[in-house]
């Protein structure tokens, strides 16, 4: 049983955190932990990895809570990662697209890490910010075949005006491993070559980091994506990626005819039309895939049902879990 004085101390401490704008500490974190202290270390994300197969999704999971509570329940979560892995198996080059976007500076995520020590401390803060205007620039002109010049450990990057004002995720470092959360984290991914990066606002988010030095770190970051954001951001991005594949394999929409929709025999797009195009019936096929067809597809629906709770408690799950891995290199944040 917790002594009354101890309980009062914990209650006053948590209230103090909220008053300062910080999320409450996880119940699994010691109540002796304090607000972030120490130096700020700045990094730029040089690689963001998502599952490339459905079987790989568990490697990207964090314990984000359960169906009716945001409190860790001993089970790791990453349902949206399972969807991304499934799409990769259908021919979506999601990881290659993300790699290119990071190298070209279209995805520009910064990490602000505040700590007194890299090995053991109870007062650490982890924040992701969106960047802009790196110096040196990501590419040496439009014809640069490599880019990535801002990922060498010497870049100075500004915080983008559009960067969400997320407060730091509070956590501890024990034996060189940081565990923090819950809190809010904003991540960028891209599913289509032609599309702008998606900024995904994750709630009840958590982070785990290892190999932490002043030169970089490796981290797994995860949180709960609202069902609204899934339908307004992720589903349209999947549809846009499908549209690019259809143009590649079948030509412009206006020229697609017949049961095959003018697609190359055995192409990925022919398979995707068979899976997604509900109008694909003989010569009346519209040879196109809409947001509604993606959202209503049996496979997609099975992988996009809410599985976690964003709040302390819920009557039913209201969000989709997501976890990704990132590595970083040193940077200066302006």
Structural class: alpha+beta
Computed over alpha carbons, the radius of gyration is: 22 Å
User: Average pLDDT, to the nearest integer?
Assistant: 87
Distance between the termini: 49 Å
Query: Can you write the helix and strand succession as a string?
Result: HEHHEEEEEEEHHHHEE
> Which shape, going by the Cα principal axes?
globular
**Tally of individual helices:** 7
Q: How would you write the strand order of the largest sheet?
A: 1-2-3-5-6-7-8-9
Uncertain segments are 1-32
Give me the count of strands: 10
Our estimate of the beta-strand percent is 25-35%
Description:
- The protein has helices at residues 4-19, 79-89, 94-103, 227-250, 268-276, 291-296, 298-303, and strands at residues 39-49, 109-115, 121-135, 156-159, 169-174, 177-189, 198-213, 216-226, 319-330, 332-333.
- With 334 residues, the chain is of the alpha+beta class.
- It has two domains: 29-226 and 309-333, no CATH class; 234-300, no CATH class.
- The chain has an eight-stranded antiparallel barrel.
- α4 crosses α5.
- It is globular and about 65 Å long.
- Residues 1-32 have low confidence and may be disordered.
Outline of the structure:
The protein is an alpha+beta fold and 334 residues long.
How does the SSE layout of this entry go?
Layout: H1 4-19, E1 39-49, H2 79-89, H3 94-103, E2 109-115, E3 121-135, E4 156-159, E5 169-174, E6 177-189, E7 198-213, E8 216-226, H4 227-250, H5 268-276, H6 291-296, H7 298-303, E9 319-330, E10 332-333
Parallel strand pairs: 4-10
Antiparallel strand pairs: 1-2, 1-9, 2-3, 3-4, 3-5, 5-6, 6-7, 7-8, 8-9
Helix pairs in contact: 4-5
